[in-house]
Design brief:
The protein is mostly beta strands. The chain has 4 helices and 34 strands. Bound molecules: CU-O-CU linkage (C2O) and copper (II) ion (2 copies). Residues 10-41, 110-130 are annotated as: Disordered.
Amino acid sequence: QGREMPGQLPNLSMKQPSDKADNQTIATEESPLPIPPLLKDRNPDPNKAVFQLTAQNATKEFVPGKKTETMGYNGDYLGPVIRVRKGEEVSVKVKNNLDDITTIHWHGLEVDGDKDGGPHSGIQPGESWTPKFKIEQPAATLWYHPHPEQETGRQVYKGLAGLFLIEDEVSDRMDIPKEYGVNDVPLIIQDKRFNSDGTFQYDLGMHDVMNGLQGDTMLVNGAVNPFFEVPRGMMRLRLLNGSNASVYELNFSNNQTFYQIASGGGFLGKPVKMNKIVLGPAERAEILVDFSDLEKGETVQLENNGSEFMKFTAKSESPKEYTIPTKLTTIDKINPDDAVKTRKFVFQGMGPMVNINGKQFDMDRIDEKLRMNDTEIWEISNESGMGMMDGTVHPFHAHGVQFQILDRDGNPPPANETGWKDTVLVNPDEKVRVIATFKHSGVFMYHCHILEHEDAGMMGQFKVGE
Ligand code: C2O
Ligand code: CU
Ligand code: CU
């Protein structure tokens, strides 16, 4: 199961995206924003939840008149929203109706390694896998996606991903918009490249091998150019950067301010005022944005790096007035003095050579051994630039745990990074220290969440407990 170096990536060529004659940016008409449905819980007991997901091949029309081959959970693209409560016993039956092996990973969920859905939990075509776990962490916007060895990038790109929401007594009490699909709206943001026949382009040129696949067409919840009619009042948006590789810098076209209320692992201590948010691959953020100053019928665009990709039109009056809460939750800071160990993770290499601490992924090798319930500091440095050239940003992610950021190059993290996180952007030449307590046993992955880097081997394994 080892990896030959260098380079096992398919269709490796020197082509830049702009060289691709077949590559076209599609201009489609506006369409209403699709809202992923909430997945039905088949168990009436309020303390138990039973869900069913089927990974399947499908086709979908992104470009009018053309069929795109896709993959989806219970549908043609993306998957339904799994919503659970803290304390609930959850079981999910996952059926693989694809032609390829897949797995399903609960990104951000604190569960034991055998429930986590990493590359060891392969589900063969036609087979099912039914992990059962208890929800033991606070309200948060998590997500799920496949994680088969060397194929994560392709399967996520084809459409396999969905949201996993946790609610608890803190989110119950909070006076913020909660009506799913109305004023509490998920935005799964992705970028794709389409061939002129409408198919997704996933043949990796050199640029993609170096930087991960960056598209030229933005999708939100699977739609190109979507619009959404909002009440003239407060909206809660749950943002997921579901792209393979792109870092987004999001703002509204009228430059209006908004408040980040949650990072990947749950609510922040208090709302953070901003007018632009950076979201790396796999990162989530919940924001509150007040549209009450808009005229009736007025439109505001959501932009990435200055280009518009979806719009909100103020329609109805808001049925209720909200104010921005002054306090959200209490985050107990982990004391660095409690850490029994500091581990170093050096992200280095480029393209097919990307590695962590000089090693590429080997499913039969455990890279780090931890004891149950230990608190550790992990120091992640990005040496991909090697001091000579521009390196790549690497989003670091660890499975089965939520961490807190201690510092970035010795400086305290910005206010919107003072809560729980499972994925953190590490810039070229930067060193980020995070701290976590490892309360779940088993084998887990840590890796770069640029999926083409992960698939090329920028991933390792840690084992907690015996
Ligand atoms: Cu979002 Cu290892 O995964
Ligand atoms: Cu994960
Ligand atoms: Cu990377």
